[in-house]
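Q: Structure for this?
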Amino acid sequence: MGSLFTSMASTAGAMSALQRSLNVVQNNIVNASTVGYARQEATLVANPFNPGVGSTSGGVSSGPLFSTRDAYVEATVWKTQHRVGYADTMSSKLTEIERTFPITAGAGITGEMDKFFAAVSQWSISPNSSVARRQVLDRANSLAQSFNQTAIDLGDAAARAGADLNTTVTQINRITDSIVAINKQRRENLASAGDAGLDSTLHAKLEELSQYVNFTALPQEDGTVSVYIGGQTPAVIGDHAWPISLTNDGTNYQVLDSTGADITAQVNGGKIGALLEYRNTLIPNYQSRLDTLAQGFADSVNNVLNAGIDQDGNAPTKNLFTYTLGTGIAASLKITDISASELAAASTGDPGGNTNALNLVDLQNSGTFSGLTASQYYAELTANIGDRLNAEKTNGTLQKQLLLQAQNVRSELSGVDINQEAMKLLQLQKGFQAAGQVMSVLNSLTETLINMLR
Amino acid sequence: MQAPQTPHVPSLAEASDAMAQLATESALIHLEAALAAMQGLSARLRTGERLQPAEQRRLERSLLQFRSELRSAGILAEQGLAHCREWAEMLTPPATYQPNGIFTGEVPQQTHVLSVEA
């Protein structure tokens, strides 16, 4: 501080450094709740002070800004976030499906099966009662309609999943477009790579993306971030986005990259991963098992009835149930135009008897489905849905706890402790006020001294 | 008879540097030291101590320099207080606060009010 000039220059530099330090703290406070924000810390660097070599300015100046962001912790948060996205979506979808397969007494397909067999049992007691025969036809019709409704509900669920997939792909592309826009700003202005606001926006977008899909984000030297869906397929490179798309081959949905290549196998996390598995694997599996149940039940009932003779002693010429292969057996199941009198209650050689009706009653306890009765097969299907739902709910709870832990670790490393910042503020404020008071006294004293010398 | 010592006018450089580094406690120590030194100088001059004209001019220049440093330090303190006031107004974040940083997807409308690089 050899001269007035160097003293002033030093003070001006120090003021600039002070202002910057305060801005950093202020910025931390303002962004305490900003999604994706990482606390920044300013550094001050002492200027050289060596009069021997002519360097006499001294003082301090601003050093580099440090972001407290930890790439490993961020990646852990994203990884856990896409697992939560997967579990939540799957739980939500399976809850819809579970309602389609009610297990309460008297409801759904099993309820209708029980009512059908109750009517058959009543018919076996009064095999020639037209009322009992009519009741069997009515119950068979209700059972067929119950299969139809369940198949329709499954079809609707598949359609909703398809619509959700389209929305999700749109969301993913919207987010990757936002990341491209940020990349452009960072590339065009390298200085902005240290901009805490831009950085927090970028990381908020990446965290949002992690709910939808599994990905890897790699920071590049030019300040941009490259995003690879499934760790392999480029979605963002520099200032260019590579949008994904969705296609349906008539059976399954496929996710395609920007060149049209099928990347479905890579997309196994987040909301889209859950929707793909639900739409392409689970629903077809449930539909197939429902069709197996409908076909097995209809065939076994038809076979028993066709083995007997009708009320007039004739061999039946019509099946009770009919369905169409290929368009969904459960969806097409219905009763034929068979009349009540054409139902075969008696066995050949026992006209007017009830042997065949009793055989039909026995079907209720027959292991038609690989040793399982129709009710047991249905129960296994519903139990399978329930088990998967419970597993996803448990997984979701666990993943949310892991996410919370990861977010807490991130908060400790990168978050802004507003109380701590407020404490710093109070201390500084008191310090500056006290300094001002001392300087006021000094000023008055200095003026007095100068006047005394003149 | 021993010649009187040349009165010493302290420098505020250390106090300014401390304030620039947000070390207001350290700045206060230097300011109080300067105040004590100036009070000592005031007492010597009030007792009628005679200075040689050259010494007197040197002392006057030192006092003018001190006043200049004092003004610079004063600007620093005012700047600091002004920032503290703005800072205090911003202590309530303009966004919905998310405890533990839990991501809800609700991006606040007013993010990043100040740019660090600005």
